[in-house]
Amino acid sequence: MALDTRTDRRPSFAGLMWRSTVGKKTVMAVSGLIMLLYLVVHMIGNLKIFFGAETFDRYAHWLRVVGEPFMHEEWTLWLVRAVLVAAVVAHAASAYQLSRRDIRARPGRYVHRKARTSYATRTMRWGGIILGLFIVWHVLDLTTGTVHPGGFSPGHPYQNVVDTFSTWYGNVIYVVAMLALGLHVRHGFWSAAQTLGAGSRTRDRFLKSTANALALVLTVGFVSVPVAVMTGVVS
Ligand code: HEM
Predict the structure, then answer these.
(1) Which end of the chain is less crowded, N or C, counting CB atoms within 10 A of the terminal residue's CB?
(2) Domain of 200, in residue numbers
(3) What is the pTM assigned to this prediction?
């Protein structure tokens, strides 16, 4: 096995995996599936808004005390946050490195760069950038309240959500991000399944339908909240 010229040591299995294209794709697939799981749970949680302010705010409070008394207050929440941050960083870093590798590997790489990149690849890259920016905005809006319109009220997410979707730009930002999310999940789930070896001639149709269903359910579920505020169903 070749020595690592920077350290004069044999590279570890994890190091070799991380440097290989298949290793980076595996990191993308696994981190993507972790985020997908979070999104399904988050979307279902958001639908509690249709049961009224008391139910929604109680649910948000439960998120802070879940696991007690074994876990101290907010420990579970911070654990979930740590896993999510690690997943986002791993996903973005491997996506960036794979796209650099892809550009370097192309012959005549400065000619017609756009024409050589497929529609799916471009959608995934732009979708990923939009979602990354959205997550920052979303946390500043509904978790810290930094960019929240009006007075942010910690512990009262129902009112905060209503305030956000009472502004035109709040609706535009969230609806555009949710559409990007749908496209990203649709192709991402399919790619992850192929990377992890789940694809086969018999299963591909099922995997494609699952990807479409997941993307649709997530987009419709998330978008239903701003639509409900805009139409006065939630106020
Ligand atoms: C219409 C769509 C959405 C609504 C109404 C919504 C609502 C909320 C609310 C109310 C919170 C604060 C919860 C609390 O502090 O108790 C929150 C947190 C969060 N949301 Fe969303 N969300 C939406 C979509 C998304 C999407 C698409 C993502 C990911 C791409 C996402 C990721 C997060 C994250 C990472 C947090 C921070 C959790 C934390 O650390 O406290 N959300 N969301």
Answers:
(1) N
(2) 23-104+116-230
(3) 0.91
